Structure formats: C-alpha cells, structure tokens
Amino acid sequence: MPELDALLLARIQFAFTISFHFIFPAFSIGLASYLMVLEGLWLKTSRQRYLDLFRFWLKIFAVAFAMGVVSGIVMSYQFGTNWAVFSDRAGPVIGPLMAYEVLTAFFLEAGFLGVMLFGMAKVGKGLHFAATCMVALGTFISAFWILSVNSWMQTPTGFEIAANGQFLPGPSWWDIVFNPSFPYRLVHTVTAAYLTTAFVVGGVGAWHLLRDSANRHARTMFSMAMGMAAVVTPIQIVVGDMHGLNTLEHQPAKVMAMEGHFKSHPEGAPLILFGIPDSDAEAVHYALEIPKASSLILKHDPDAPLAGLDTIAREDRPPVGIVFWSFRVMVGIGLAMLGIGMWSLLARIRGKLYDWPLLHRAALVMAPSGFVAVIAGWITTEVGRQPWTIYGLMRTAESASPLDAPAVAASLTAFVVIYTAVFGAGVWYILKLMAAGVHTGEQGPEDLEKAPIRTAGITPGPTQNPVGREELPDGVPGTSPRQSEDG
C-alpha cells in the first residue's frame, strides 16, 4: 500500500466527490432531454400517456438535479482547500470558463426550473414547454463549459506563462475553449449521458413489464429507451474510437497504459484483451491477446509500429493497472449495451418487444450500467493523465495545498459519512419512486401539498372539481374526460 500522505489523500477525496457528483449530471443531462421529448409528444398528440410519463420522470429529475447541484458545490471548494497552488497558477484560464458555466448554464436552469416543476397549471402550454427546453439546453451548456475546462487541462492550448508561473490566456479565448480534445470529449460525454438515461428508463420499463406485460406506460418507456440504445450505442462506439485516436495523438502515454503496452512494437502491436499488468516487471502477465489488432485499431494498419511505455520516463507514466482495467470495464459495458440494443431491435422486428421476459430481465440488469461506464471512463481519463494536473506542464504534486495528512483525512472521512447518508437517502427515494411506477393522471410536483402558491397580486382562486383538482385546459390536471390513457 502506498503511504497515505496529504497529496494522495487529497487525490482520493477529489476522486470520491467528483465520482459521486458526476452520477447525477450523467443522469440529469439525458433526463432533461427525455422530458423535453415527452412534453413535445404530448403537445403534438394530446396523448395522456406522454403527460403521465412526463410528470413521473419530472419528480425524479427534480431530486437528481438537486443532489447534483449540492454535490457539485461541495466539490468546487476543494480547489481552494486542497488544490490552492493549482487554483493560483491556472485560475486566470479556468476561472473565467467556470464562471461562464454559472452565468449561462446555471442561471438558465435555475431561472426556468421553477416554471418547469410548478408552472404547468399556471402558465400556458407553450411557455411551459419552452421552460422545459431551456432547462434541457442549460444542462448541455453546463456540460459544455465544464468539459472545456477539463479538456484544456488534458490538452492545454492558447495560453502564455507569466514570470510568476501563472497560466494566462493568450490573444484568443477560442483556442482555450476549443482545445484539441474538447470536441471529442464533449460529444463522447454527452452521448454517454443520453445512454445512461436510456438504460435507466429502459430498466424501469422492464421492471414494470415483468410485473404486468400489458402496462402501457411501461411499454412506452421500454420502447423509447431500447430505440435510443439501438441507435445511439453504435454512434457512441464510433465517437469513442475517434476520441481514442485523438488521445493517441496528444496523450500517447495514456493510450499505452490503456492498451498495456509496456514495450514498443515496431512491426504491429497486439490487442491485449485481458491480463495482469505489472509495472515493476514492465509486462502483462497471463495476457490474452490478438496479434497486431491494436495497430489495426489505432493506426488502421496491422503492421504499423506503436511506441510503448519504454519510451516514457518512469516518473512520467500513469498507473497502468488502474487505467488498463477501467478502460476494459468501460468498453465491456459499451459492448453489452450494443448487444442489448441489437437484441431489442430483433425483438421489435419480430413483434416480441413487450413479450420477451428474458430481454426484460437483461435490460433490468443493465439499468445501472451507464453509471458504471461513465465512472470507469472518467477514471481512465483522469488517472491516465497522471502525474500531470495540466498535461505536460504542471505536475499533480506541484498543485496541492501545503496541508498535513490528518487534516485532509478528517475532511475525507466527513465527506464519506455525509455523502453516504444524505445522497444514499436521495438515491433510495428515487428508487422508491421508480418502483411505484406511472399511473394514469400521474401527479406532478405542482400537485404536492407543499407546492408553491401564488403570492403576488390578486389572483382568482381556482374552480374546484369534485376531487379538488383545478378545471384546466385539456391535458393538465383536471383534464377533459375525453382523454383516455392511450390518448
């Protein structure tokens, strides 16, 4: 075991908090877009089923969004507490980018979230749909700026280094924002978020189909989710390959660790499927490999030479074992997603999408797979960047605050205990909502007893129907009885 000094503890703390945090944006980014699609379909078709699904997932989105915001705020404080040197030197570049995220994405989401959650009975259909679209757009813009910051740390461009060692923006901010790895990382991450949401929705639909194969809400969820999986998973695999080629160009040591290539291969490198990396011996023990396949994938030529970690100084190499296995977890889950997507496509063609229990069980098992894949992907990205904070320019050991190990250990322990208790309860509540399922006439947040009330001006009181619901236009609570569950 390595010595638990302040630097290692600070790295563990940031890894824990950011992994915990990213679970929620990975879900809310895709779920916001799914809500936008559901409300758009309801407005176009007037089918009650889409409104029920919208209101069901809206409650889950509210909880996930809140937990994502809280965990993200806590995480950002670590830039000042544990990584003050990094913040001081890189602040002139990354500070404005993170401020843009707050000024654009966060304010946009916060401004329209209240209308989205509580405004369906208080504003027009068009305005409410516009609010939903703005929230979905805000989640994407948030991902845009945060991934721009991370990508700049991976492939820094457009900067100047001052006499005091600070990184200063160059003449063009566009060179900083659109650094070489940013477009690939943005598309790969956002697509991963969409797939994460698709498999959660598909898992919930599968759960209720196993209980009642005639459940129309479950059928709609499952059909939409599996359609997304069948279409988007192949796209994600292609995007991931392009991202890998970009990484090979700009961060070759990371790809060497991912592939387990300790030695250079001048006449074509094998693809190591599995094995046990040994950094001390500079070998992968018990390797199961395909000759020259790595050169074929990375260079599109089976005989193309590939450099190994023997060309990189030992002090500049990433931890091979972690990167090697996290990459395989991510790729393995991606292939499993592709298999489920193709299986569902076959079932759809054969007319058995809702009557194939084995497929439903497989989809249920795969429900959390997106979260595992995105965390594995981020481990590959961040651990593969080591020992650098700003790749090739600033080491992680140079970035940490001058703290003692007991101080960092105490805050890490507090984070683990509090996160497990608070966010564990939140996740349990979300799972409880999912297990309850969707019902015709599903209530939304505005129907809850403690929902906001009108407090400004003189507003006429609602006309109550026999069950105490407002008489409103078709498709909202108190809707016309002509609308059946099927629309």
UniProtKB/TrEMBL annotation:
<keyword id="KW-0249">Electron transport</keyword>
<dbReference type="GO" id="GO:0005886">
    <property type="term" value="C:plasma membrane"/>
</dbReference>
<feature type="transmembrane region" description="Helical">
    <location>
        <begin position="56"/>
        <end position="77"/>
    </location>
</feature>
<feature type="region of interest" description="Disordered">
    <location>
        <begin position="444"/>
        <end position="487"/>
    </location>
</feature>
<keyword id="KW-0479">Metal-binding</keyword>
<protein>
    <submittedName>
        <fullName>Cytochrome ubiquinol oxidase subunit I</fullName>
    </submittedName>
</protein>
<dbReference type="GO" id="GO:0016682">
    <property type="term" value="F:oxidoreductase activity, acting on diphenols and related substances as donors, oxygen as acceptor"/>
</dbReference>
<keyword id="KW-0812">Transmembrane</keyword>
<dbReference type="Pfam" id="PF01654">
    <property type="entry name" value="Cyt_bd_oxida_I"/>
</dbReference>
<feature type="transmembrane region" description="Helical">
    <location>
        <begin position="358"/>
        <end position="379"/>
    </location>
</feature>
<keyword id="KW-0408">Iron</keyword>
<feature type="transmembrane region" description="Helical">
    <location>
        <begin position="222"/>
        <end position="239"/>
    </location>
</feature>
<dbReference type="GO" id="GO:0020037">
    <property type="term" value="F:heme binding"/>
</dbReference>
<feature type="transmembrane region" description="Helical">
    <location>
        <begin position="126"/>
        <end position="147"/>
    </location>
</feature>
<keyword id="KW-1133">Transmembrane helix</keyword>
<feature type="transmembrane region" description="Helical">
    <location>
        <begin position="408"/>
        <end position="431"/>
    </location>
</feature>
<keyword id="KW-0813">Transport</keyword>
<dbReference type="GO" id="GO:0070069">
    <property type="term" value="C:cytochrome complex"/>
</dbReference>
<keyword id="KW-0472">Membrane</keyword>
<dbReference type="GO" id="GO:0019646">
    <property type="term" value="P:aerobic electron transport chain"/>
</dbReference>
<feature type="transmembrane region" description="Helical">
    <location>
        <begin position="191"/>
        <end position="210"/>
    </location>
</feature>
<comment type="similarity">
    <text>Belongs to the cytochrome ubiquinol oxidase subunit 1 family.</text>
</comment>
<feature type="transmembrane region" description="Helical">
    <location>
        <begin position="322"/>
        <end position="346"/>
    </location>
</feature>
<dbReference type="GO" id="GO:0046872">
    <property type="term" value="F:metal ion binding"/>
</dbReference>
<keyword id="KW-0349">Heme</keyword>
<feature type="transmembrane region" description="Helical">
    <location>
        <begin position="12"/>
        <end position="35"/>
    </location>
</feature>
<feature type="transmembrane region" description="Helical">
    <location>
        <begin position="97"/>
        <end position="119"/>
    </location>
</feature>
<dbReference type="GO" id="GO:0009055">
    <property type="term" value="F:electron transfer activity"/>
</dbReference>
<dbReference type="InterPro" id="IPR002585">
    <property type="entry name" value="Cyt-d_ubiquinol_oxidase_su_1"/>
</dbReference>
<keyword id="KW-1003">Cell membrane</keyword>
